[in-house]
Amino acid sequence: MHRPRPAVGVSVAVLIVAGVMSGGGTGRASADPGSAGTLYVNHDVACSDTGAGTPSAPFCTVQAAADVVEPGQTVRIEPRDDWTYPGSVTLTRSGTKDAPITFTGAPVSVGGSSAELSSTGSAPALTLKAVHDVRVEYLGVWYRGGDGVAVTGSEGVDLDRLSFPRPAVRAPGAGTAVTVDGASSDVTVSRNWIGDGYAYGVRVEPGAARVTATTNVVTTPRLGGIAVTGTSDANVTSNTVLAPCAPGISLDGGSSGTVENNVVASTTARQSDTCPAPTAPLYTVSADSAAQVTADYNVAANGAPGGTRPRPEYSWDGTPYATTAALRDATGQGAHDLDGLNMLSLTAPNEHSVLIDSADAGAPGELASDVHGVPRADDPLVADTGTGETTRPDRGAIERQNTFTVPADDMPSPSSGVAPFDVSLRTDDATTSWGKPVTAYSVDFGDGSAPVTRAPGAPITHTYATPGTYRVTLTVTDTDGSSHIAQPRVVAGTTTPPAASLSGGAVVSNAYGEVDAGDARFTVPQPADAWEIAQRFITFGDGDSEGLPNTPQQVEHQYQAPGTYTATLTQTDLIGRTTTAKVTFHAADAFLPVTPPHDTKRTIAAHGVLKLSAATLGADSDGVDAAQLQIVTSAAKASGSLTLYTDGTTRPGTSSISFEPGRTATDEATVEVTPTGSVDIYNGSSGAVTVNVATLGLQSHTQFGRTYHPVTPVRLLATHPVAGGHSVMLTVAGAHGVSADANAVVLNVTSTTTKGSGSLTVSPASTINSGVTGPYWTTGQTASAQVVVPMPDGKIELHNTSRSSANLIADVVGWYGPTTSGSVFQPVTPARILNTHTGAGSGKIAKLGAHATLKLKVTGAHGVPASGVSAVDLNLTVPSPSGTGYLVAYADGTSRPGVHSVDFTTKHAVANRALVKVGADGEIDLYNAGSTSVDVYADLLGDYGVHPVG
What is the Cα–Cα distance from 298 to 314, expressed in whole angstroms? Predict the structure, then answer.
């Protein structure tokens, strides 16, 4: 039959908003905040453990309050912003029967979190030691190795509405959520929620008396859900134990008491990976306890009827029983027990479930409310099959409730707008699943105005005058007194949305001053009216993005390739308005010198291509984008030039070195490469040529490396005769404008007044086989080359390999060092930006006249930024000079230096690398110091930008 609902108490129902069911209510009980008997603990404000424990001067730690609390007082523990109060707490002070001591978490709103205690090491988070008349409620307990709460030698203790999150350490056999030792008595463990992975949910040790475990939820315990050993007058009532690895509920060791209204479910889908197929019974009462224990109205959710039972349902007096019927027939116990059903999750029973209104309301320890704190309810849609003089409760810890359906238009509408604006709530659409008419709508608009209560009918309107976020509390009540609270949010926005702000390109360096030139650091300040921001995120321009909180942020991002990227910060406020801010960042490369150089020697057939893998070049490390190579040609069968380019790309119309039969030529070149790719070398000659390729340095966008500092050329060594086979040592770092920290130098070296053929080797001082080959010359020839030379100790050595003397000149044109104030490299696709023979780059077809200067714009085209460029990496070629002379390349707007960028002789094509400082106008000057006009080619290989280049 259907029993009428008693007019006692108020039932809280489940609310459905816009047709979506929500969970049951979580009503709170707490100490009166204004009570003179309340001590406060709040670490998130100015606090002191030696203070008075008032709201304005609270204790910092729970232990401080525990040390001074008196009978009748309440210790109120406020939630912390960083979640927990670390440090195990021990209470040794007692209350009295009429004036108990209470520890409680602070009240929280719907969706809030309780204050949490966190254990230290193996000690319990909370120990009640030899105390009496103590209540602990509404706290989270975070287990980190030992027990959660330990009751030792105590009596008159209530542990109610505690939550035990999934433990950080879940080793089998370790950790019990609640332990009651054998010297304790009159302890009630009620309405606690114990998460996955504890060894035991509740464990009562031999010698204890009058312990009640009621209306608790325990999930996937390792060694036992509720385990009672050697305890007299124990009551295990209305608990729900889901997927235990061992017995869900057990009484042994001569225990006595009752087991009623419990649900234990063998949910295999929830089993831990340490016990995927447990075999222990769901309920166990040992032989030494069976005569003193009665069990009834329990549920063994162990599989559907006719299916395979995963495990025995009972072990009674040492005998296993597969079903409730078998237990009942053999022992007379469990006369009203149920089985033959599945339980997959921890929710209220489905409507019409056999669990509804089928428990014993008079079972010892049965509570008037469920684990959520909502009252036990009589479901009018289900026939009562339980017993007792009061409302029939459901079995287990979770009660089925009446549900309210409140359509969306019964919520505040609109839910957002620019203040001031009006909202309206309809009050005529709510219904209940049990058919109870709604009698009242009560609305607290959350802005300090008086709540409004009204019978269903006319809408309720309200004006939000001040910008802010407001939590509306809507309470809907039916004729039976059941009610539930919904708390929708209303946003009153400011007139304009909070502005977005973004800056970027901050220096990212290591302890040595080296930079990661592909790593950007963006600064995102906290926006004004940060409360109003619903979402903000940054997109980095390379497909990656990152969500950001509303606090000030430093966001670091590693780009995976050099290039120009636009990072965008997008902010969306609570009423849907969007603002953005952008910043450009040029991801680039830092220089990694290679000592000793990697080198390889090969012969390339006429018009053939030599492929050199990145591994062969030593360029296969992380993030390498380019290699600085030196090429030496010999044994040429015909005149021609080589072109270096990235394998898999179209061969550019550039040249890297010119050569001819009977002469050895050398040049340096920068070529793009990937760690898994190759470099192609094309022989444009009609005859074969032998090449020796050495790697002098790498450019990487992900490794910490050195920055480049172009300088106005400084002469280190004037015309100075060096005998054949002899060397000259030069100090570079710390002199001539070069930093003492410099560890590589870029030199223009020139040989003149040569008495015989030979070449020049430039090396770090006092090193062997790590030199860089400078120019080769024939008798009487002036030859020059630009070289990059590592210098670990700040010195270099110039060695004349000829048998005859030669005068040597050395000019510094730049240096690399571990400093963030230098420039970083940005590779480009090789391009011929000047060809006087065709007029490209110069605007007219005309050779560069003797003693004439040509201005060449190098920024704003061919992948070179329009600003922020300090130097360009060029290869200069004089293809077929009709006379002898040299070119000088230098920054426009500066005095012409006396360096030899390219030396040429009649009818001999020559090419030289030139790292050239760029003028403030983005131009360089090329001066022909010869006595005849010459054609000039300039091939662009990359540029250097001031770091950070964003």
Answer: 11
